[in-house]
Amino acid sequence: MTGEKKKKKRLNRSILLAKKIIIKDGGTPQGIGEPSVYHAVVVIFLEFFAWGLLTTPMLTVLHQTFPQHTFLMNGLIHGVKGLLSFLSAPLIGALSDVWGRKSFLLLTVFFTCAPIPLMKISPWWYFAVISMSGVFAVTFSVIFAYVADITQEHERSTAYGLVSATFAASLVTSPAIGAYLSEAYGDTLVVILATAIALLDICFILVAVPESLPEKMRPASWGAPISWEQADPFASLRKVGQDSTVLLICITVFLSYLPEAGQYSSFFLYLRQVIGFTSETVAAFIAVVGILSILAQTVVLGILMRSIGNKNTILLGLGFQILQLAWYGFGSQPWMMWAAGAVAAMSSITFPAISAIVSRNADPDQQGVVQGMITGIRGLCNGLGPALYGFVFYLFHVELSEMDPAESPEKGAKLNMANPTDESAIIPGPPFLFGACSVLLSLLVALFIPEHNTLNLRPGSYKKHNNGAQSHLHSSQGGPCEGKEPLLEDSSV
């Protein structure tokens, strides 16, 4: 096993050296300097900072546009976006291997940010374009491939950590800034500012970002064929049953990430318009939970992995997730939301631990295949989770009363649930309780995951995949760290 690792390190050094030689020979397209992680960091920060500014205005526009079935429509909008992202991600990844990363960074950022100015022009078109933008809502996939192109394997976790920290920084700061500007100057200024930042991001990609994948390093230039297997979003899911351990891991991921994806799509709307949080309180909540999540994944995770082991860390993370979902399900007071938020931050250790156990047990040439399965399942959950949450809110009549503009949540007024029932009085947040039951099943499945077991997916899977190994080389290397960051799925923004 040690010999294989040494061979793999030598191979990675050779690939990186070849890239540097090609770049020096004139293979670098337009851009400022050589490709670096900092180019990727700036692109991510600007895109999600622009969207973070819109947290407060978006909640207001959502309720004004769909006053009768706010949660249901919110779930359907995010569900369609997530499902389209899941279907398109493999094709865009394969095309970026052939045509380069820069053009697809430009494409994904442009279409992801295209709905922003429509918020004030036409709310209906705004939500329609948000749903359709899921086709290109895969910026992180391209960014991970960009980083993999320019780093060696032992540098990759640090590079992904920097991208993760940048994303978290934008998430922590921008909602608070947007809430302040919205309160002081109105939503129109916030939308204009977010549009300007999105345009700045597009200009930065056009002018400053160099191509990380020189033409000589691509499998073939513009005429390279793209097979259906490369573009098929269900290709990795069909290989799930070939290994019992992989099957257990994938079931665990599905049952735990399905409620998490739904929670991301509706939680801030729930806090503001059912629990009664003001815009400023929602922004502060996002900041605090974001900071605690960073601490959990950087400090607490390492301590737990060393002290109690990989599998027990997964079980502990799932336990925290059950607790926070149950607390959100039964809680009706603001202080309960804050306490559950701290527990939610601790539950963010689950996916890094799952990624680590997969990375440790899979053979070097199987990493991309196994991680691709997990990423595919998470992408599917991003489509199903929001729709499921919206539907459960609708079934339990958790809808919003008519709002008087003078008594909007900005003034701190707490809204009552429309058509209250006995169930809604006892369980203010039914979808969160359903989510807790789903994660409980996930915990029971995770108990059977072996701590040490070599994953084997070779029969009928990797041999086919290997025909396009060169074209998958860069995109698959980003896989092992894909589950490392909180809220990293583009469609959950």
From TrEMBL:
<feature type="transmembrane region" description="Helical">
    <location>
        <begin position="71"/>
        <end position="92"/>
    </location>
</feature>
<feature type="domain" description="Major facilitator superfamily (MFS) profile">
    <location>
        <begin position="36"/>
        <end position="454"/>
    </location>
</feature>
<feature type="transmembrane region" description="Helical">
    <location>
        <begin position="125"/>
        <end position="147"/>
    </location>
</feature>
<keyword id="KW-0813">Transport</keyword>
<dbReference type="InterPro" id="IPR020846">
    <property type="entry name" value="MFS_dom"/>
</dbReference>
<dbReference type="GO" id="GO:0022857">
    <property type="term" value="F:transmembrane transporter activity"/>
</dbReference>
<protein>
    <recommendedName>
        <fullName>Hippocampus abundant transcript 1 protein</fullName>
    </recommendedName>
</protein>
<feature type="transmembrane region" description="Helical">
    <location>
        <begin position="336"/>
        <end position="358"/>
    </location>
</feature>
<keyword id="KW-0007">Acetylation</keyword>
<feature type="transmembrane region" description="Helical">
    <location>
        <begin position="246"/>
        <end position="270"/>
    </location>
</feature>
<feature type="transmembrane region" description="Helical">
    <location>
        <begin position="159"/>
        <end position="182"/>
    </location>
</feature>
<feature type="region of interest" description="Disordered">
    <location>
        <begin position="460"/>
        <end position="493"/>
    </location>
</feature>
<dbReference type="InterPro" id="IPR001958">
    <property type="entry name" value="Tet-R_TetA/multi-R_MdtG-like"/>
</dbReference>
<feature type="compositionally biased region" description="Polar residues">
    <location>
        <begin position="467"/>
        <end position="478"/>
    </location>
</feature>
<keyword id="KW-1133">Transmembrane helix</keyword>
<dbReference type="InterPro" id="IPR005829">
    <property type="entry name" value="Sugar_transporter_CS"/>
</dbReference>
<feature type="transmembrane region" description="Helical">
    <location>
        <begin position="312"/>
        <end position="330"/>
    </location>
</feature>
<keyword id="KW-0812">Transmembrane</keyword>
<feature type="transmembrane region" description="Helical">
    <location>
        <begin position="282"/>
        <end position="305"/>
    </location>
</feature>
<dbReference type="GO" id="GO:0016020">
    <property type="term" value="C:membrane"/>
</dbReference>
<keyword id="KW-0472">Membrane</keyword>
<dbReference type="InterPro" id="IPR036259">
    <property type="entry name" value="MFS_trans_sf"/>
</dbReference>
<feature type="transmembrane region" description="Helical">
    <location>
        <begin position="432"/>
        <end position="449"/>
    </location>
</feature>
<feature type="transmembrane region" description="Helical">
    <location>
        <begin position="104"/>
        <end position="119"/>
    </location>
</feature>
<comment type="similarity">
    <text>Belongs to the major facilitator superfamily.</text>
</comment>
<feature type="transmembrane region" description="Helical">
    <location>
        <begin position="188"/>
        <end position="209"/>
    </location>
</feature>
<feature type="transmembrane region" description="Helical">
    <location>
        <begin position="37"/>
        <end position="59"/>
    </location>
</feature>
<keyword id="KW-0325">Glycoprotein</keyword>
<dbReference type="InterPro" id="IPR011701">
    <property type="entry name" value="MFS"/>
</dbReference>
<feature type="transmembrane region" description="Helical">
    <location>
        <begin position="379"/>
        <end position="396"/>
    </location>
</feature>
<dbReference type="Pfam" id="PF07690">
    <property type="entry name" value="MFS_1"/>
</dbReference>
